[in-house]
Amino acid sequence: MPISRVEANEAAKIIIDKLRREHGELMFHQSGGCCDGSSPMCFAKGDFLIGSSDVWLGTVHGCDFFMSEDQFEYWKHTQLTIDVTPGRGASFSLEIPLGIRFFIRSRLFELEELDQLTPIHIGPIEV
After folding, report:
1. Does pLDDT of 127 surpass 90?
2. Which DSSP string corresponds to 11-67?
3. What's the pTM?
4. What residues form DSSP beta bridges with 63?
5. By C-alpha distance, which of 22, 33, 43, 32 is closest to 76?
6. Three-state secondary-structure class, residue 81
7. Which terminus in the chain has less CB density within 10 A, N or C?
8. What is the mean pLDDT of residues 70-83?
């Protein structure tokens, strides 16, 4: 069984479920800019246009998770875990009106895990 590149902890899953009930299917994107641009942002599925150089890392709690290619080069050796924290971010992410924001925790993959990772996909996913 492949090892997931991205996960969500229980606190994040509760918020994802709440946002899904309100907005329908969701997606995440982490662009890698400064400030909140390096935080995972949650959108209604299709509200953020995936570019030809965005990398799909897999699904997290039923949501596609994308990252810009340059960010992926930096993070490709880590497992990302979406978490939440109190505070208002400065992005358009759906959780912001709740007075919280998503953020990433990470851990380096063990060497023996590297050949078992979920395969990535570059660019939009065709359905």
Report:
1. no
2. HHHHHHHHHHHHHSSEEEEE---SGGGGS-EEEETTSSPPPTTEEEEEEETTEEEEE
3. 0.91
4. 60
5. 32
6. strand
7. C
8. 94
